[in-house]
Structure formats: structure tokens, C-alpha cells
Amino acid sequence: xxxxxxxxxxxxxxxxxxxxxxxxxxxxxxxxxxxxxxxxxxxxxxxxxxxxxxxxxxxxxxxxxxxxxxxxxxxx
Length: 76
Known about the structure:
This is DUF5678 domain-containing protein. There is one protein chain. By secondary structure, the chain is of the alpha+beta class. The chain has one domain. Helices cover 53% and strands 25% of the residues. It is built from 3 helices and 3 strands; from the N terminus they run αβααββ. The chain has helices spanning 3-21, 32-40, 42-53; strands spanning 25-29, 57-63, 69-75. The chain has a 3-stranded antiparallel beta sheet with strand order 1-3-2.
């Protein structure tokens, strides 16, 4: 599994967990390499997530107290 597939897997995993809670966003903890991959192809990841949900998506990147990048995908 390459890093792009790994990131998509993490997103899909969070979507499955989220479907039980019916929230309108997911949080995915990344490492710096996955952050670079996401930023290099954000349209692909948002497009795939939109297809899975049937909703448009937007994102925000933040850092936690340990300075780890966290991807927040919001469902519009």
C-alpha cells in the first residue's frame, strides 16, 4: 500500500466511524509525509470523499499540542 492509498484508507476508516455518529466532519491525524501528499493532491482526496458521501467537502489543516498535523474534512 503506497502513501496515497494509506491516506485514503485513513479517510475511509474515519468516514465509517463517523456514519454511526452522524457528524458533519471527520478528523484524521497525519504525519508530515501524509500532509505533503494531501496538500499535493487535495482535489483528488476531496473528490473521492465527496463521491463516498454524496456531499461536497472542504478541509482545514490544524496542529495539535504535539505539533502533529490534523486534517479536518467538513461536509457541506
